[in-house]
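U., I forgot to send this yesterday:
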Amino acid sequence: MMIFTISLLIAGAIDCTHIAIKAPPASKYNEESFINRKGFHSINVQVVCDSQLRILNINPLYPGRTHDAFIWRNSTLRENFEDGVIGRGLWLLGDSAYPLETWLLTPVGNPSTAAELNYNAAHRKARNTIERCFGVLKQRFRCLDLKSAGGLQYVPEKSAKIVMACAILHNICVAFNIPTEEICGNDDE
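Result:
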């Protein structure tokens, strides 16, 4: 019996995370659109990262109530895949909130065969990088973590700029192999 391995070129893993913000002024914003499904005000930030946890693409421009699939459908990144700007044969890994597309692999809903179960297990393991990226990003920059002081205390546009700055600094830390303990301090000392 021969076992074949198919190797795919994974461009990255994609998902969204909520960054808590203060309630935006009702005079300028539709405040309700910033209340996410968990009941707090946020911006929904779409991120693509690679296996080294480098952020390859980030979109922090949508209110917290916006669904991940809507952000994806309206993203320049999706347009670039669709138009062939991003090379053929590259794949993104997304969770079940995303639609299955030629360049976006999602889990099999209701897997019924061993192959589908194996695919889902491999997909979950590979896509875990985006969850780790969110954890490291929020560890490095506690202002992005909901648990810290109620989130960012700025209007959505300024909050988005802060998220972008944190993503850039995160990538610099990854490039120079700076562990999160050096930034945050070691709590054990």
